[in-house]
């Protein structure tokens, strides 16, 4: 033997010889394995959420339906609101930013301008003499029936001055506009809109030089206006017949006061000064403020405020649908927590923390919100496309989609918080004992 060990009374008293046995090497230090990373936990929670949703597809579909309808409604309503706003604003902007509108009646008066006798042709002539005024166009309107042969057509009749095309920035498609001499001598001439001309003549271009009977008197068609389309109020601006203001007052209206005066200014930077000068002039002439003056900018601002309120109203109505969808998410999540009480107890018994349970159910609610948001945005865009094809003004932009999707995610988070907290605060013993 290469080694001898002598023992006595259980004690080693001698140890001789060598041994090939090598001293045991110190095991290298190893760090204790840490738990899964936060990203890993998130990924696993998302997988569990999808597994849970797939376990009951019918209930999941019903839950998603509420969110989808809410998101689609928000996208469609906001697109309709923005589209309507753009349409109205573009029509107002087409009027030009260099106009002042003078109407009869004291500020705050709600009566129709035709029923108030405060503005006269002399007022229009005086306003036309002010500095920075390009044209001051008097106007008197009414309605009458035009006749050509056996064809009758009732339309809006406006008596205006020869400067009307300048103030309205509108040209003629055929023929010419009546002149200042026509206004001075009360000549029986008329300029027709394309809608009016189309209802009276088979050949609109050939209508120039023809005669129409208006108020029992013949009027020669001097020209046809270029097409303008609907106004900001939805009125067909081509359904009109224009006559010299003096001719209209004498033969058609039987009144010598005006419905309005439209002032076109040369320099828009000085439009406020011109408005002040016009106000002072009319106050001096009338002795009282029995008129109202507004400029295009103030009208645009009022219309924009109205349209913004309309868009907010539409968005608020659509948000109610999203709120109802969120309540549906919360109800289904509460049912899910009740059904999975034992599963929650097992997870807690095997080391899951309350924060893990909370995250699991919150992510499940977020997945529902996200899926419903994506589907709702796509359906909302589809609805907008169908509406636009049918002629409704719709503005499809990214912002409503982002807003709606974010709202869906926030809805899932908010309405999933209560069920998630309920699940996280379950007692493990009670949960394991549940059936």
Secondary structure layout plus pairing:
Elements: E1 3-8, E2 11-17, H1 38-55, H2 57-93, E3 99-104, H3 121-128, E4 133-148, E5 151-160, H4 164-168, E6 172-175, H5 180-184, E7 189-192, H6 194-200, E8 211-214, E9 217-225, E10 240-244, H7 245-253, E11 260-265, H8 271-286, E12 291-295, H9 296-339, H10 341-349, H11 354-389, H12 398-424, H13 428-433
| Averaged pLDDT | 82
Largest sheet: 6 strands, mixed, barrel
Summarize the amount of helix as a percent range. 40-55%
* C-alpha Rg (nearest Å): 41 Å
How would you describe what is shown here?
The protein is α+β, with helices and mostly antiparallel strands. The protein folds into two domains: 183 residues, no CATH class; 184 residues, no CATH class. The chain is built from 13 helices and twelve strands. The strands form two sheets. The protein has a six-stranded mixed beta barrel. Strands 1-2 form a two-stranded antiparallel sheet. A hairpin with a 2-residue loop joins strand 4 and strand 5. The chain starts with a strand and ends with a helix.
